[in-house]
Design a protein that fits this description.
Blueprint: H1 20-39, E1 43-44, E2 50-52, H2 53-59, H3 62-68, E3 70-73, E4 79-82, H4 87-96, E5 105-109, E6 112-114, E7 126-135, H5 140-156, E8 164-170, H6 171-179, H7 188-196, H8 204-211, H9 224-235, E9 241-243, E10 257-263, E11 271-277, E12 292-298, H10 299-308, E13 321-325, H11 331-343, E14 348-350, H12 357-366, E15 371-375, H13 377-382, E16 384-389, E17 395-399
Helix pairs in contact: 1-5, 5-9, 7-8
C-alpha cells in the first residue's frame, strides 16, 4: 500500500504562525497601538475580512483587485475578496449609519489584511494593521491630530525623533503640478503611481517620457494648508515633519493631504506606514461626502523597526505561579490551592507531568514564570506553603488564609 505523503508543517507562503513567544510580542504591539489611539479619544470597531469585490474595484483601484487580492466566487456565485485594506470597509460602515451619526467620529481597528504579492522584508501576504480614522473635520486640525497620533505611536514604542521622519504632501498640489507636464490629463493616475514608486523604478525617465513631453521636475512650492499644517506641528514640538513633493500614496481615493513615516536606518529603507485625507469615499454609497482623514500602520514593519533598535520588550509570562505537585497523590490539593490563588486574580498553572521536581522548576523558569510552589505531603499536612521567587531565589511562607497578603503577585 502506498504511503500518503506527509503534510508540510510550514504555513502558507507569506503568512505567519504565532507561537506563544511571538504572540506575546504581537500583543505588546497591539497594546501600544490600542492605548495610544484611545489616549486621543478613538474608539474601537471591527468587521468581517470578507467583502464584496465591487467595493475594492470602485475605490481601491483595478490594479489592486486584479493583481494583489485574494478574490473568488462563493457558493452563491457572488464575487468576494479577502480585504486588502480597511478604508473601504470603514467608509461602508460610516455610510450605513451616516444619517444617525453625530460628527466628528474617531474610530480605530486592528484587522488582519490580505494581499497577494511577493513576500519580502516588511511585506507579507497577510498582516495586521492599526487603522485610525477621523470623520467630520474639514480643517487642518484633522491633519495635525492624525499626524500627531502617528508621531505619538512611534514615541510610545521608544523610537526617538532623530530615527524617523514624517514626509507630507498634498495630492491636490501634486495633481496640478503633474497635469501641467502631461501630454494628456488622462495619464494622471499612471503618472501618480509612477512618481510614487520612483525610487524603485530603474527606467523611470523612460517611463515618464511616455507620459510627458517635459523633463521630470516637481516644483517645491507649498500651498497655504500645507504651510499651516507644518506651523501647527512645530508648535506641538513635532520637528521631524518635512515636505516631500513626491509622496502620492498608491490608492485612488486620497483627495488632499497625504503623509508617510520613514525610518532613517538603511535596514528599513522604505515607508513604514502612512495615510491621508479621503473626503469623497462615501459618494459611492449614495451619501453626502464627509471630510475624513486616516492612516494605517502594519505589524510587520513596526516589528522590524523595534528589532533594529533593540526595542522589543522582555516578555514575562502572564502566569505568575507554577504549582509543582510532588507526585500524583498531591494533584487534588494542588488544584484546590490553584483555585484559591486564582480567586485572588493570581494566574496559576499546575504541572501535572511526571518529570523530576528539578526539571519542573527549570521548565517554569524557562517559560519565565516568576514564582513556584512545590507541594508535597508536608505542605498538605501543615497547610503551610513556600513561594519561591525564581529570579532572586527568595522564599516566602504563606497559608491559604494569608494569600491575600501576597500583593506583589497581583
Amino acid at each position: 500500500m502506498d504511503k500518503k505523503p506527509k503534510l508540510s508543517t510550514e504555513p502558507y507562503k507569506g503568512v505567519r504562525d504565532f507561537y506563544p513567544e511571538d504572540m506575546a510580542i504581537q500583543n505588546y504591539i497591539f497594546d501600544v497601538w490600542r492605548k495610544t489611539a484611545e489616549s486621543f479619544g478613538y474608539v474601537e470597531y471591527g468587521a468581517s475580512p470578507l467583502e464584496s469585490t465591487e467595493l475594492y474595484k470602485a475605490k481601491s483601484g483595478e490594479e489592486i483587485v486584479n493583481e494583489q487580492t485574494y478574490s473568488f466566487k462563493d457558493r452563491g456565485d457572488r464575487d468576494v475578496t479577502l480585504r486588502p485594506e480597511m478604508t473601504p470597509t470603514v467608509a461602508r460602515m460610516i455610510a450605513g449609519k451616516r444619517r444617525e451619526m453625530k460628527f466628528p467620529q474617531r474610530w480605530f481597528s486592528i484587522p488582519n489584511l490580505f494581499r497577494y504579492e511577493r513576500p519580502q522584508r516588511g511585506r507579507l501576504r497577510e498582516h495586521f494593521q492599526l487603522n485610525c480614522d477621523m470623520f467630520g473635520v474639514a480643517g487642518i486640525e484633522a491633519e495635525v491630530e492624525m499626524i500627531s497620533l502617528a508621531y505619538q505611536i512611534m514615541k510610545n514604542f521608544g523610537i526617538s525623533d532623530d530615527k524617523f521622519e514624517i514626509r507630507i504632501n498634498s495630492r491636490k498640489l501634486l495633481q496640478h503640478k503633474i497635469e501641467s507636464k502631461l501630454k494628456n490629463k488622462e495619464f494622471y493616475q499612471k503618472a501618480l503611481k509612477l512618481i510614487d514608486k520612483k525610487s524603485k523604478i530603474k527606467n523611470f525617465d523612460e517611463e515618464w517620457a511616455l507620459l510627458s513631453d517635459q523633463p521630470y521636475l516637481i516644483d517645491e512650492t507649498l500651498n497655504n494648508s500645507l504651510e499651516e499644517t507644518f506651523i501647527s506641528l512645530r508648535k506641538k514640538g513635532i520637528v521631524n515633519a518635512i515636505y516631500d513633493g513626491e509622496i502620492g500614496r498608491g490608492f485612488d481615493y486620497y483627495t488632499d493631504t497625504v503623509f508617510e513615516i520613514f525610518d532613517k536606518n538603511p535596514l528599513n529603507n522604505r515607508s513604514l506606514f502612512g495615510g491621508g485625507r479621503y473626503d469623497n469615499l462615501l459618494e459611492i454609497f449614495g451619501e453626502e461626502p464627509v471630510p475624513t482623514i486616516g492612516f494605517g500602520i502594519g505589524d510587520v514593519t513596526i516589528r522590524d523597526v523595534l528589532e533594529t533598535y533593540n526595542l522589543l520588550p522582555d516578555i514575562k509570562s502572564k502566569t505568575k505561579v507554577a504549582i509543582i505537585p510532588f507526585n500524583q497523590s498531591c494533584f487534588e490539593d494542588a488544584d484546590n490551592l490553584a483555585s484559591i490563588l486564582r480567586l485572588q486574580n493570581i494566574n496559576t498553572a499546575v504541572d501535572y507531568s511526571d518529570k523530576k521536581i528539578g526539571d519542573k522548576i527549570a521548565k517554569a523558569d524557562k517559560e519565565k514564570i516568576s514564582f513556584v510552589v512545590v507541594l508535597g505531603e508536608e505542605e498538605i499536612k501543615t497547610g503551610t506553603y513556600k513561594l519561591k521567587n525564581l529570579a532572586t531565589k527568595e522564599e516566602q511562607v504563606f497559608t491559604k488564609e494569608t494569600i491575600s497578603n501576597l500583593n506583589f503577585l497581583k
